[in-house]
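Aim 2, interim progress. The first record below pairs a target sequence with its structure tokens.
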Amino acid sequence: MILIVLGVFAFIIGSVLSKQGNPATEKTSKLLYVVGPVLILIGVFTSCFKTVEPGQVGVKSLFGKVDDQVLYSGLNFVNPLVKITTFDVRTQNYTMSASHEEGTQKGDDAIRILTADGLEVVIDLSVLFNVKSSEAPKILQQIGTDYLDKIVRPVSRTAIRDNAVSYDAVALYSSKRDEFQNKIYKTIEKSFADRGLRLEQLLIRNITLPASVKASIESKINAEQDAQKMTFVLQKEKQEAERKRVEAQGIADYQKILSTGLSDKQLQYESIKAQKEIATSPNTKVIIMGSGKNPVIIGGN
């Protein structure tokens, strides 16, 4: 387009110089008569070719009217008068976070919601989405190029708030987290689809509870851990008591066997064996054999 404008200016200046009848400017005017049309032709030719970068699509508009035909990446031949608006169709990430360095918008951009039990919970959220190539003309016509601020951000925040009122803070933090994420995913997915966007993934990055609730949860967890520890101790004591009972029963059974199972002759035999071992030992001893069943041992080293 710039070449076309320069060519028109060159042609006009050449025309003005030729009317002066000055031999000095006549050559210049003739040159401009040649250069002007050449610039115009080059400008028109180059304006007919538009390059769309990889990962983008182009939407044509002429005097405010949007063309439904989409230009895909590469070199495209178009009317030199049309305006090309490009859209990024790759995966885009829109993050709302309490951290000043992580969010798409600077500062604390986390979502603050009220749960069913009236507590304020802070949620960090990341939305992964892309623009549908075929829907790019519709987006340009109905929304514009600032779909992040008009669609992605408000729809996501509203879906979070509308669905959070069905859950208690503790359930939202723990047992119902996946259910909550699936529910808001479906809500956002439908809203995006109606506006030419495709939701790829929804990530609840963090859920921050009020300090009082967090303290009570930690206290409950500690109590549960103490209870589990006590259960383990009791089980160990029961096992030890059972071991002692079995041991005592074994000793009792052994003594019962000895008291009922050994005869006098067997006891006499065992006594003779013991006396023999004492007599043959190297230690000096005196053995007095009496009328009793067992000898009396006097002295010995």
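The second target in this work package is listed in the same format:
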Amino acid sequence: MQTKPYNILIVLITLFSFSCNQLEKHKEPILAQHHDTNKHWSYNGETSPEHWAEIEKNSDCNGHQQSPINIIHIKADSIHVENELKFEYKPNTIVNDVENNGHSIQFDFEAGDYIDYKNERYCLKQIHFHEPSEHKIDGIIYPIEIHLVHTSKSGKVTVLAILGKEGEESQLFEFFESFLPLESGAKKEIHESVDLSSFPLKDKEYYSYGGSFTTPPCTESINWVVFKEPVILSVEEVLKLKENMPINNYRNEQPLNDRIVQYHF
């Protein structure tokens, strides 16, 4: 019976040596739920967002802290905290694969890159897109919204939301779209590097609030960071993404209820 203490020691060593690389191997249930490819919900007809709470009985879709929201700038609490959000993206972030999951185009990343948010590390997991935007700022709807999904070792999730408007061509989006078109349900292996610093996020103003995933099961207790200034991409880039996703793959605006939106400047 001397093997029991040894086994316990091995478990403790495994837990304390947790890293972004190990997080990649141990998918969190909360994130796996977000990417359920089951087609029982959609963006139109009888399974559209207005009916998600009815058809997803065990979800949070009828909760009181749901996303997306309309952010009213004048009503947000203005705060200034140094280094609350820090980016640790390398110039050669490795994209593992791209998938058309029937709801969006999703790029999955290999372990390594992360953000530091409120003194906690969140590893970059994936990027996906919504057209038009899900979040609004002062009622304005943008042509596209990009979600960068990050998870911590404790299972918490922080999503960076970047709004996009039409203008000049973006090399970053040209890279992502070079792997399209992709039929619904299809997946491509990539294993190529990309420089995410093309997203001008460092030292930018943003809003934060507590919300939910914007797809079923609409899990709550998600940290949202919505950047105030949109990035720019060409009309052609917007249309190419749109052609590879369901039409209007956005969830309707949710009530703010008693939540407070903070404006970080």
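The chain has six helices and 15 strands. This observation will shape the mutagenesis plan for the next reporting period.
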